[in-house]
Amino acid sequence: MFHFFYRLLAIQLTEGVRKVELLMIQIVVWDWLEFAVRWTHVITAIAWIGSSFYFIALDLGLRHSSSLPQGVKGQEWQVHGGGFYNIRKFIIAPPDLPEKLVWFKWESYATWLSGFALLAIVYYGGAELILVDTNVLELSSTAAILISMGSLALGWIAYNFICKLNVGKDDTRLMLMLFFMLVGFAWLYCNIFSGRAAFLHLGALTATIMSANVFFIIIPNQKIVVADLIAGKSPDPNFGVIAKQRSTHNNYLTLPVIFMMISNHYPLAFGARYNWTIAALVFLMGVSIRHYFNQKHASNLKPIWAWVVTFFLFLSVVLLSFVRPPSHALDDSLASSSHRSALELAKFVDLSDTIVSRCGMCHAREPLWDGMVEAPGGLLLETKNDIAQNAKQIYITAGISNYMPPNNISYMEPEERQLIVDWFEDYYKSI
């Protein structure tokens, strides 16, 4: 939709300008749109995770005293910003509801909405390149997008169903079932999408569960309690218990989500043969790390064993990253019809030589650069098909900007950068 909007806008505002110039404007604007949405997502995620960490630590740090009024579970004294805070928590509800009540919900909603927008811009908009990997599974872009959206909904439905079973009354059994459910999704994603997309979707699925917990369970339950107080009724404590349980789940899922969201920069994780196993171990690491801090906040105990477990889990991840997936033959026949025009241009011969010589030592299936075992970002520029598929990225990073090669370490000349620009413009003239 955004793609269509900007294309239409460009045509309306610059009538009479060459088609290629309109498309270049579109590409730049689209890239900045992605940047803006990504920035928004990071900001809102910081706000949400920050409030989550704070309230979990606060709740675990509450101390009970006989001097506290009836109904108060505990209190905590805090010092910050040049002043002192005395925070109390009522078990069910306060005897009198204040006029102003601060809700913590918009951080969650904004994080999920901006995250889904980013998913649509990057992965749905570039499905053919980023989402689908024909070496994993032959899928059309439409099918891949539908599977993506359907899996997010299915994940929440499955999780919520498990929570409402009798097993949901046992937190340990519930967390185990949740873990195995996420491992199952990890395996499915890694056998459907590209490795990079699989990890991102696992993070998106987990974040969807977390945000849905807030939207469908936590906030509605709290609104019921508030409504009962306003009506002069005695609130049902069960609503608070359920909300607390879902909040605890969110707390333990936070760190794995962060890992999955930044994993696209680390192909050693998503590009390994047993990438789904690595994902499973990451979830366990998230639990062990959060357990340490939760115990520390609750009792001032420091379970060092949690860090020992985390270390060995991380070591297992590192060892698994050495097991590389099976190599696929270099086949330029895989180029899609939408990219064949790029291969057929007269400038492509010179361009491919330039890309291979300036970029190929790193962006190869077996990088030649000392100390490098994976192509940066998983981006391959080894074959003609690789170059055609990544035309836009090459244009942005090495054509209209000097981002690549880093520090111009392979000495790409200005004429070579201009060749990239000219080739890309000719490419878009032909489609």
Cα radius of gyration in angstroms: 26 Å
Element order, helices and strands? HHEEHHHHHHHHHHHHHH
Q: End-to-end span in angstroms?
A: 20 Å
Shape: elongated
Number of strands: 2
Number of domains: 2
Percent helix range? 55-70%
Q: What is the typical, i.e. mean, pLDDT?
A: 85
In DSSP terms (H or I, runs of 4 or more residues), the helix count works out at 16
Low-pLDDT sequence parts: 13-17, 333-337
Strand content: under 5%
Largest sheet: 2 strands, antiparallel
Question: Numbering strands along the chain, what is their spatial order in the largest sheet?
Answer: 1-2
Based on secondary structure, the structural category is mainly alpha
Précis, in short:
The protein is mainly alpha-helical and 431 residues long.
Q: What do these coordinates show?
A:
With 431 residues, the protein is mainly alpha-helical. The protein is built from 16 helices and 2 strands. A two-stranded antiparallel ribbon has the order 1-2. α2 (19-61) crosses α8 (237-262), α6 (171-190) runs antiparallel to α10 (275-299) and α15 packs antiparallel against α16. The protein starts with a helix and ends with a helix. The relative contact order is 0.07.
Characteristics:
mainly alpha; 2 domains; two-stranded antiparallel sheet; 2 strands
Secondary structure elements and pairings:
Elements: H1 2-13, H2 19-61, E1 72-80, E2 83-90, H3 106-124, H4 127-131, H5 141-164, H6 171-190, H7 195-230, H8 237-262, H9 267-270, H10 275-299, H11 304-321, H12 337-344, H13 348-359, H14 384-389, H15 391-399, H16 414-429
Antiparallel strand pairs: 1-2
